[in-house]
């Protein structure tokens, strides 16, 4: 039997078996109802338990979205959920905008051409994965190139997947503009008539999925699948079907849920909705707001719609984020008929170094206000200058009211442009074969007497092939006719779920404001007006939202304290073990539901940090590190930890303010010396590093100023150990598996690089400390610019220390230290011990002793010795050509009385300083008056005239750091 005969036989068997299935009601493929399919952005399809979310098996394929990485020009931002496209910028710098077509629609319409000279070519490839439902093992793949005839097997699972490939060519530059590959699973909308009892909430920023009972609101389970979720499917009717799900911001999803108390009488510990005590609870009605989330996977960006609660920072509409100039759009000629008009053009050019360059395109990451749809008018008719035979154009998306009832193909259908033409011919029938009809692209088509008239010639050569194709197209027709109704049902289900979420939030809001008791042991109401801008002046900020969630069961096992409530005036005094606090005395709050109250412990005033149960493990690690390190005066002091059924409470040292408040309002702390505060900060950081503890979140808000002691002394202390990392002995680096630690704008570049050469080390703290140093000395400036461009400039190593532009002694010293600390290469940064040895912290007395010791050391050295040569190298700028010309006349006269000094020699300048210091009391009164008092006036006399002298000498004599004489000024080489 020939190949054609075998194909016909297999086709007949398929049709006959399909009839038997319909008659007997037996499904060809059965799958347990307990399975749910979760598709993630990295290309994985997880088969999970519907009851627990546990992964049964995983089918790994290519990522949902694949786009190239350009060095200077980006493409577009694709939406992995449906293939929508977003573009940044435009002719009038509109900012982020949504294009009115998707990747499947472009592929469907290809080959086509837009009015700005972009040629679109597309390719669509379908595949069936034949999978063992028990193990997930892929048996085979069925494609158009498959040579084996495989008949259905009831024990196998068939999963359809379509790959859309789109390429854009720019006719103006004769270059490839952009290309992308989008993969989508074949799955119709879920049938709402089946009354699905679950709702799946997915996080837009990571792989977290929370499954909720739609009737009771109980959270049945939550799982994190490691990559953003783009689709949730059920298996029904022998095929995958979309399951109702909503995408929420990662912060919103964690904000809405946390582990409830474990009821020992209940065999199952479930999750419950809860309101996490943020500012909005007492000031505004919480609502879910639709946004566009821009995220990053590997080396490319993607965009997806996401719901957020009030309080999440949003990037405003129209913000182009360009550093100097916005993107430029090549002009497009608009004809009088308006047929070539397109706004904005997709031909967007970004300046070098803008937000979309390879190093800094990640600045787009975050939640944006929902962008407008670009009102793009695609070509409906080719102008004479653009017309080419055989070209199609991108059809405009039809409005619902104007959709033709006889057109069986939805614009969102993945059918090709050829299929669309064919369906129109079949739908109109032979009654209109003599009429001239406009094609999809608006051009006049020739008469068609039969459906075969529009088929390619090679397809009409085999009647069997034509018959099979006709049956396939009939299936597409049935799907297309029912698709709009099912899509509307899915949209309705999504809206109902969204309304239910918002209603639940509002009910919790009302409970919070009326003081509803949600636990027999704890009152969760508070009537405090909190300011999100006011900083926790006496405590460390909350842990980072990157910290993982944990059950509270362990806390309940260990926590024996009872939560007692006492009314005191307008506040509520809470007693938990030895810790007490009043709920109205709020010092600050932060993300993840963490609050800090003013309280008492064992008769002393303390700051009480209340932490949610999902952060218990982080809190325990923080407490452990505090216990290990708080013996140092420049590390926040830890007192006690207590627990109740819902929270963990940490009592820590009560402080007066943060370093940020000190910089913003120095009049309240005018008696404090900023250099002393910075030195104390480095002492505390050096202590942590000596214990192999890396802070990883050093910033002005995490450096506190203690309450003055009995002598009026104030200490700078390091706080917030939530992101600290204890490096095991024998190692010097830490991994980033748990996420990127730190606060944007203060993170070292090696932490954010896509492919770091080495793992981060304690040098990340030195980098952050360098930024803090400049922040304090410049009264609030940042070395890497404003907040919008800060982290981008950190990645590119572009800094500006404009505060130190003036060539004076203090600026030269500070500039040298800070430039070392904020070096882009971690290996080039000094250790904390080296920083503390830097001349920046030297008193005038130590500076004078250093000058004296250097002069004594080189006094007997020959002129050609390495030390003297090093000292005199570039010395002309140090002595300002001739140092004798820049000293006062009385000193010049006195120097001429004893010996001859070379005015162009650094060694002779140091010799003169040493001699005058040794014989200071023998100098004439006018010379003493000129030089000033020892040591401060004397040193200032010379360093004010020769601002580079100290730094130059210190650098030159570094070669002698191993000598005992210079141990007070340098860190010994073997300890660096």
Structure, described:
The chain is of the alpha+beta class. It is built from 22 helices and 37 strands. A 7-stranded antiparallel beta sheet has the order 26-27-28-29-30-32-31. Strands 4, 8, 9, 10, 11 and 12 form a 6-stranded antiparallel beta sheet that branches. A 5-stranded antiparallel beta sheet has the order 3-2-1-16-17, with no helix packed on it. Strand 27 and strand 28 (579-589) form a beta hairpin. Helix 11 packs antiparallel against helix 13 and helix 15 crosses helix 21 (936-945). The protein is elongated. The relative contact order is 0.06. The model is unreliable at 7-30, 259-285, 321-362, 377-461, 508-563 and 565-570 (pLDDT under 50). GO terms for molecular function: ATP binding; hydrolase activity; metal ion binding; protein homodimerization activity; protein serine/threonine kinase activity; RNA endonuclease activity; unfolded protein binding. Residues 399-412 have a biased composition (Low complexity). This is Serine/threonine-protein kinase/endoribonuclease IRE1.
Outline:
With 976 residues, this protein is an alpha+beta fold.
Features:
single chain; 976 residues; alpha+beta; de novo design (two linked rop proteins); seven-stranded antiparallel sheet; 37 strands; 27% helix; 22% strand; elongated
Strand order of the largest sheet: 26-27-28-29-30-32-31
Rounded average pLDDT: 72
Shape: elongated
Whole-angstrom Rg: 36 Å
Q: What CATH architecture of one domain would you give?
A: Up-down Bundle
Largest sheet: 7 strands, antiparallel
- Helix/strand-derived category reads alpha+beta
EC number: 2.7.11.1
Protein name: Serine/threonine-protein kinase/endoribonuclease IRE1
Main location: endoplasmic reticulum
Catalytic activity: L-threonyl-[protein] + ATP = O-phospho-L-threonyl-[protein] + ADP + H(+); L-seryl-[protein] + ATP = O-phospho-L-seryl-[protein] + ADP + H(+)
């Amino acid at each position: 039997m020939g190949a054609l005969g075998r194909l016909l036989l297999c086709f007949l068997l398929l049709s006959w078996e399909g009839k038997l299935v319909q008659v007997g009601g037996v499904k060809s493929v059965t799958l347990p109802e307990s399975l749910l399919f979760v598709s993630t952005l990295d290309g994985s399809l997880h088969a999970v338990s519907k009851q627990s979310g546990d992964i049964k098996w995983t089918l790994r394929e290519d990522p949902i979205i694949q786009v190239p990485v350009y060095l200077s020009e980006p493409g577009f931002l694709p939406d992995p959920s449906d293939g929508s496209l977003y573009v940044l910028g435009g002719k009038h710098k509109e900012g982020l905008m949504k294009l009115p077509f998707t990747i499947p629609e472009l592929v469907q319409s290809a080959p086509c051409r837009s009015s700005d000279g972009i040629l679109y070519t597309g390719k669509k490839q379908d595949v069936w994965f034949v999978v063992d439902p028990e193990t997930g093992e892929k048996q085979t793949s069925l494609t158009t190139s498959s040579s084996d005839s495989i008949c259905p097997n009831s024990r196998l699972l068939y999963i359809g997947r379509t790959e859309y490939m789109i390429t854009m060519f720019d006719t103006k530059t004769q270059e490839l503009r952009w290309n992308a590959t989008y993969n989508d699973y074949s799955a119709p909308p879920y049938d709402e008539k089946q009354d699905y009892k679950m709702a799946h909430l997915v996080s837009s920023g990571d792989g977290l999925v929370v499954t909720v009972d739609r009737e009771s609101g109980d959270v049945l389970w939550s799982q994190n699948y490691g990559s953003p979720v783009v689709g949730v499917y059920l298996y029904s009717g022998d095929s995958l079907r979309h399951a109702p799900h909503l995408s929420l911001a990662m912060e919103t999803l964690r904000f809405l849920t946390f582990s409830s108390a474990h009821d020992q009488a209940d065999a199952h510990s479930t999750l419950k909705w809860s309101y996490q005590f943020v500012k909005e609870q007492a000031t505004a009605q919480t609502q879910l707001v639709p946004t566009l989330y821009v995220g990053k996977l590997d080396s490319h960006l993607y965009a997806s719609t996401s719901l957020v609660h009030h309080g999440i920072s949003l990037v405003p509409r129209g913000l182009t984020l360009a550093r100097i100039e916005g993107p430029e759009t090549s002009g497009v000629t608009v004809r009088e008929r308006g047929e070539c008009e397109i706004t904005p053009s997709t031909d967007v050019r970004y300046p070098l170094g803008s937000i979309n360059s390879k190093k800094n395109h990640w600045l787009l990451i975050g939640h944006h206000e929902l962008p407008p749809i670009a009102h793009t008018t695609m070509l409906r008719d080719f102008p004479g200058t653009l017309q080419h035979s055989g070209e199609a154009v991108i059809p405009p998306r039809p409005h619902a009211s104007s959709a033709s009832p006889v057109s069986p193909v939805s614009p969102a259908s993945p059918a090709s442009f050829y299929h669309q033409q064919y369906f129109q011919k079949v739908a109109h029938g032979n009654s209109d074969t003599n009429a001239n009809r406009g094609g999809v692209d608006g051009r006049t088509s020739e008469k068609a007497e039969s459906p075969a008239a529009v088929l390619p010639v090679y397809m009409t050569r085999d009647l069997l092939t034509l018959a099979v194709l006709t049956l396939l197209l009939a299936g597409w027709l049935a799907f297309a006719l029912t698709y709009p109704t099912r899509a509307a049902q899915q949209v309705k289900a999504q809206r109902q779920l969204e309304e239910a979420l918002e209603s639940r939030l509002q009910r919790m809001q009302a409970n919070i404001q009326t003081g509803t008791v949600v636990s027999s042991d704890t009152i969760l109401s508070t009537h405090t007006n909190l300011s999100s801008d006011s900083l926790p002046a006496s405590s460390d900020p909350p842990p980072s939202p990157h910290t993982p969630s944990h059950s509270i069961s362990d806390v309940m096992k260990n926590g024996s304290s009872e939560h007692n409530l006492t009314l005191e005036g307008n506040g509520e005094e809470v007693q938990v073990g030895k810790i007490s606090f009043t709920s109205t005395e709020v010092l600050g709050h932060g993300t993840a539901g963490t609050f800090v109250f003013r309280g008492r412990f064992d008769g002393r005033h303390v700051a009480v940090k209340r932490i949610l149960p999902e952060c218990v493990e982080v809190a325990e690690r923080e407490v452990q590190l505090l216990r290990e390190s708080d013996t140092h005066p420049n590390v926040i002091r830890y007192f006690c930890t207590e627990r109740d059924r819902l929270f963990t409470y940490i009592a820590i040292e009560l402080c007066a303010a943060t370093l940020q408040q000190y910089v913003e309002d120095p009049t309240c702390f005018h008696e404090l010396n900023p250099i002393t505060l910075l030195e104390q900060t480095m002492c505390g950081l050096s202590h942590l590093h000596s214990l192999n503890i890396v802070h990883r979140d050093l910033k002005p808000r995490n450096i506190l100023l203690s309450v003055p002691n009995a002598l009026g002394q104030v200490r700078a202390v390091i706080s917030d150990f939530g992101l600290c990392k204890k490096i095991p002995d024998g190692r010097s680096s830490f991994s980033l598996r748990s996420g990127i630690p730190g606060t944007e704008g203060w993170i070292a570049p090696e932490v954010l690089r896509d492919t770091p050469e080495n793992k981060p080390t304690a040098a990340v703290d030195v980098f952050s400390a360098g930024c803090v140093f400049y922040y304090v000395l410049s009264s609030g400036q940042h070395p890497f610019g404003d907040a919008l461009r800060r982290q981008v400039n950190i990645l590119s190593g572009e800094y500006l220390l404009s505060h130190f532009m003036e060539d004076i002694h203090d600026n030269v010293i500070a500039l040298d230290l800070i430039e070392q600390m904020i070096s882009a290469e971690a290996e080039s940064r000094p250790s904390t011990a080296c920083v503390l040895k830097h001349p920046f912290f030297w008193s005038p007395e130590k500076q004078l002793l250093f000058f004296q010791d250097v002069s004594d050391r080189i006094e007997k050295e020959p002129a050609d010795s390495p030390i003297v040569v090093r000292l005199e190298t570039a010395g002309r700028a140090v002595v300002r050509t001739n140092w004798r010309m820049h000293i006062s006349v009385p000193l010049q006269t006195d120097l001429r009385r004893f010996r001859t000094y070379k005015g162009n020699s650094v060694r002779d300048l140091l010799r003169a300083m040493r001699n005058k210091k040794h014989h200071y009391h023998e100098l004439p009164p006018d010379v003493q008056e000129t030089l000033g008092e020892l040591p401060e006036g004397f040193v200032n006399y010379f360093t004010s005239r020769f601002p580079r002298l100290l730094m130059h000498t210190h650098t030159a004599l570094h070669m002698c750091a191993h000598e005992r004489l210079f141990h007070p000024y340098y860190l010994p080489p073997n300890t660096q």
